[in-house]
Known about the structure:
With 400 residues, the chain is mainly alpha-helical. Among the domains are: 54 residues; 93 residues, Receptor-associated Protein, CATH 1.20.81; 108 residues, Receptor-associated Protein, CATH 1.20.81.30. It has 15 helices and three strands. Strands 2-1-3 form a three-stranded antiparallel beta sheet. Helix 7 packs antiparallel against helix 8 and helix 7 runs antiparallel to helix 10.
Amino acid sequence: MLFNYKATTKDGNPQSGSIEAPSLDMAISALQRRELIIIDVKPESKGGLFANITLFERVQTRDIVILSRQIATLFEAKVSVLSTFRLLASESSNPMLRRVLTAITDDVKGGTPISGAMAKHPKVFSEFYVNMIKSGEESGKLSETLNYLADYLDRSYALVSKAKNALIYPAFVIMSFVVVMVLMLTFVIPKLSQILEETGQELPIYTKIVVGISDVFVNYGLILLILVIVVVVFLVKYLPTQAGRLSWSKFQISLPYIGRLYRKLYLSRIADNLDTLITSGVSMVRSVEITSEVIGNEVFKNILVQTANEIKSGKAISEVFSNFEEVPSIMIQMIKVGEETGKLGFVLKTLAKFYQREVDNEVDTLVGLIEPAMIVMLGLAVGVLLTSVLVPIYNVASGF
Length: 400
């Protein structure tokens, strides 16, 4: 966000200009670090239709992956921290990311650690990311940590994208089919049913059912539309709540077949996150707590929160995981072996790779099953609709 300011130097010389910052407070802080005496700071007014275009700006995971690799490369080339962030801010094509990097540059210039500066932008850098950077700063291996982060984010992004993309195509086809069927039942079937009723013949039972459904859409279509809107509004309000997120998470992992896919996706994320954090030197308890915040499912989040609390009292991860049916026994046994042999990081990495392969296989199988299943389902629906209309018409035509 751009702010216009008026200020004076310590010598009393007036200065004015503009500065980019995520918020007014951060703009003021940046100006104060320049040893300016602030007179006035105001956000630049932008009138017109696109005045609030920043509301739609976002930084994608892909951008963070590229950014992490760029920072690591520049650090390895012995480029200073300030020069690195200035360069990346000037080269970034994403306006939001450019503003965030500019703010980080100002904070680092004022003495704030990189992790602390990034922590001020939770919409861009997750708690997981910030803690990894903090670990790299403390161990003196920030370049290695950034490369490791980029690898992790790349794996996570690819895994989630593949799972989502597998569901986009069938969702689009089903939605298109529903729209077409509603239009048919609302505009086409009523005209045909009127013709059939005028013939005075007895209609087959399946034709009566189709005509009855059509009558509901025609006579009560507005009520049905209002009900749909009410349900959508309710879900929009309910799902972001704690109870709503928990209900959706339970529904998500309890669906036939798809639920199994999601469970393996979350188990892969747990193993990968814990391996990444523990290997980077983050404590066991803190690693579990951070993973609970980024897992993306309330059921598994609650499991990890309880696990963190039990670990504090001296219990092992495998012992706590054994109390939850959502965690498979193979994962519990392998973690137990890792704890006993002192190779928990290696075991977690192996588990992460195993579940990633499982997710890939589940997605490939799902894609292979969805297409023929949809063809059969759509064929049956269209067949019933056409039969209910064409058979009576054929009977009328054969009577002449």
